[in-house]
Write a structure and sequence with these properties.
The chain has a single domain, classed as Glycosyltransferase (Alpha/alpha barrel), CATH 1.50.10. Helices cover about 45% and strands about 5% of the residues.
């Protein structure tokens, strides 16, 4: 397939030239955005949010949608919902940042609604505080198509249920929840809760965040920081995952969780100033880079001790400037600027502003991409080019910025439509940090 059309006017030649320089590891001569581009980005953010709420939250949680055809005649199946809690946490962060910038009542009401869904996710299994990957109406045919084989196959003793899909407990008996939650399930929630805690100065929201975080935290502490769904599945904790959650617990209730302070202090002292190790730009398993960026952002956002704050800011600067500066990743650029306040960093500004200007118009369909030999970008290996691609050149996926930035082969032509959180999150982070201007 050909390249997609970008939102609004897209990139001007001198802007594209600057981005290509960033991808080559050269100094960017970024000219900034023109007024019509600033307006186009805002228009896209508003349109994309409405579209996401209309099509990608069928049961109140984020989902990819497999349609019967490209005219959206019928929803065949919800896709990607094993990661729904992760992306619903990101959606919650988008709402919190948007409210911080605009203070509109509708956004606040949507925040309340999403927090209610998280309340359900922590209770639906009957194991209070365990965070399910997803939970929804058991009678929804599009959901049935997913949960029937969730876990890889249908259960032999529970027909109609995948081996890791279960009936809800108590008042949630008409629901089915998905177990075997992983660390990234909790990463998305931690990220969303942390953004709301910092950016939404509203008593009811703060109270609900505290309640949810304590409920999840109490379960984690009781289970020795393992993620246990009560049905035989468990996930081990990791150091960088645990330190982010410990920081959040200490922020929402320092008195209750004071016993965690010594271990948190030790973990913080160990945190490398060089930043966490992450996959390289040619690594096809690139997604851990996103998780480590979000965890480090939480530490920067919530830390109030001057020495630890300085350590975390140094780690974020080194992570961005020394490890991903040539990845053309606006999500990482936005997290870096918001965490450190380095709003004048020309590489980050070029990456954030330019890659959002190059973001394709709706709808965001899955499509097969084979661009090797069609770009003025030498091949690194059979799957990747040497330099990071512009947004419109990348393979459409659920969240572009957790996918390898140089991959030129992949995707499929099924009528799967993806949400646009990968535009909305860096846009509103950029607005909240002052890098992106109001139209």
């Amino acid at each position: 397939m050909g390249l997609a059309f970008a939102v609004g006017p897209g990139l001007y030649p001198e802007q594209e030239q600057a981005l290509r320089a960033v991808a080559r590891g050269e100094k960017a001569n970024w000219p900034g955005l023109q007024p019509e581009q600033t307006q186009a980005l805002f228009n896209a953010a508003e349109t994309f949010l409405i579209h996401l709420q209309q099509y990608h939250m069928p049961q109140g949680l984020v989902a990819d949608i497999l349609w019967s055809d490209f005219s959206r005649s019928k929803v065949e199946k919800y896709e990607g919902i094993g990661d729904s809690t992760t992306w619903t946490g990101v959606y919650l962060a988008v709402l919190g940042l948007r409210w911080h910038v605009q203070r509109d009542p509708q956004t606040l009401q949507e925040i309340y609604r999403v927090l209610d869904r998280f309340d359900m996710l922590t209770r639906v299994s009957g194991r209070i505080g365990y965070l399910a990957r997803y939970a929804g109406n058991a009678e929804d045919p599009a959901y049935q198509e997913y949960y029937r084989y969730y876990g890889g196959k249908e259960s032999t003793d529970r027909p109609g249920f995948g081996v890791r899909a279960y009936q809800g407990q108590g008042i949630f008996s008409q629901m089915v929840w998905l177990g075997h939650s992983s660390r990234d399930t909790y990463d998305g929630a931690c990220f969303g809760f942390s953004v709301l805690w910092k950016y939404v100065e509203e008593n009811q929201v703060q109270q609900k965040i505290r309640e949810l975080v304590e409920r999840i935290g109490d379960r984690l502490v009781k289970d020795n920081w393992k993620i246990l769904d009560g049905r035989g599945s468990h996930t081990w904790h990791s150091y960088r995952w645990r330190i982010a959650w410990t920081r959040l617990l200490l922020s929402v209730n320092p008195e209750k969780y004071a016993f965690l302070s010594p271990s948190y202090h030790r973990m913080a002292q160990r945190f490398p100033k060089s930043g966490p190790k992450i996959p390289g730009k040619y690594d096809r398993s690139y997604y851990p880079a996103n998780l480590n960026f979000m965890r480090l952002f939480v530490l920067n956002l919530l830390e109030d001790d001057p020495q630890r704050s300085a350590r975390f800011r140094t780690a974020m600067r080194n992570l961005y400037r020394k490890k991903v500066y040539d990845h053309l990743n606006p999500h990482f650029a936005a997290l870096y600027v918001a965490a450190t306040g380095d709003v004048s960093d020309e590489n980050a500004r070029a990456t954030l502003e330019g890659m959002l200007c190059d973001y394709p118009e709706l709808p965001k369909w899955s499509r097969e991409v084979e661009l090797q030999g069609f770009l003025e970008n030498p091949m690194k290996n059979k799957h990747s080019v040497r330099y990071a691609l512009l947004t419109r050149e990348r393979i459409p996926r659920d969240f572009l910025w957790q996918r390898p930035p140089c991959q030129v082969i992949g995707g499929n032509n099924k009528p799967i439509e993806y949400p646009t959180l990968d535009f909305l999150l860096p846009y509103w982070l950029g607005r909240a940090s002052g890098v992106l201007k109001a139209p």
